[in-house]
Amino acid sequence: MIAALLLLLPLPLLLYMAAPRIREMLSSGVCTSPVQLPGKVAVVTGANTGIGKETAKELAKRGARVYLACRDVQKGELVAKEIQTKTGNQQVLVRKLDLADTRSIRAFAQGFLAEEKQLHILINNAGVMMCPYSKTVDGFEMHMGVNHLGHFLLTHLLLEKLKASAPARVVNVSSLAHFLGRLNFHNLQGEKFYNAGLAYCQSKLANVLFTQELARRLKGSGVTTYAVHPGSVNSELTRYSTFMTCMWWLFSCFLKTPEQGAQTSLHCALTEGLERLSGEYFSDCRVGWVSAQARNETVARRLWDVSCDLLGLPLD
């Protein structure tokens, strides 16, 4: 017994020493596209921190006019100044967007449409994870309301601008967690039964299904769409869960950096020749596997119709 314990003692040190190599193995996907974006317009939600911030920074570095769509405008302004300084691109703008409030989403869209003539890249990046049971301003369960319905509405409101700017792309940040998701249309808002982890997984499954149905509806329009799994990233996403925050801290040396986590979003937004893969789910900059329910066209169409009904949008 003592001998076994002695053998295990060096294990934490060995793991720590191996951490850079393990992180490299888990971060194999890198966006290698050389595409530059002068004259292009991009919107990134949740761009004041983490993956969104790094995504916006790279788009600005390539010359795009980038809108940081953030709930915290003050923090967004600080990030915009940082990106402007690092990239030399002064066309980094901050606009208020609270995905937990449909009035804020509509106000953002209305302002953007009045301000801009084109939109080439929409990256639906913002999200919440492991929230205690709570509701958005409009009464939606927080995960479903922010992660899916908020971005569903935003995309719908900006869709004609995307079509008029084609070729254009929509990137929806999902997660590997969608494999554990099941869409229960009789408990979509978690009022009959609620588990924070399952609610998050359900919303990430909704992201994948939304992407597939959107691709089907946009076929031939010049607008393509992709769902992405950024990987396990050391970010603020776990802020609502003490347990997940502790786990992220404990294993932080193995997690991707936000810059590494942004690579698959950038790959889908920038890489030429991906048009034929519209609707696909990407992980580490390549097409990944999805769950059985995520491939169900009937469920995807039903989710679209239910989402329109909840948001008061016309069925088409």
From TrEMBL:
Full protein name: Retinol dehydrogenase 11 isoform X2
Organism of origin: Echinops telfairi
The organism's taxonomic lineage, starting at the top: Eukaryota, Metazoa, Chordata, Craniata, Vertebrata
